Amino acid sequence: MSRSALLASLLVFTAAAGAQQQAAQPARPVAARPAPQQQKLTPEQQAQVTRQDAEITKAAAKVVQLVDTSKTGEVWDGASKVAKNLVNRQTFVSQISADRKKLGAPAERKRVAVTRSAYTAGGQVPAGNYINVVYATKFANAPQPVRELVSFHLDDDKTWRVSGYSLR
Question: Where in the sequence is the signal peptide annotated (predicted)?
Answer without folding.
Answer: 1-19
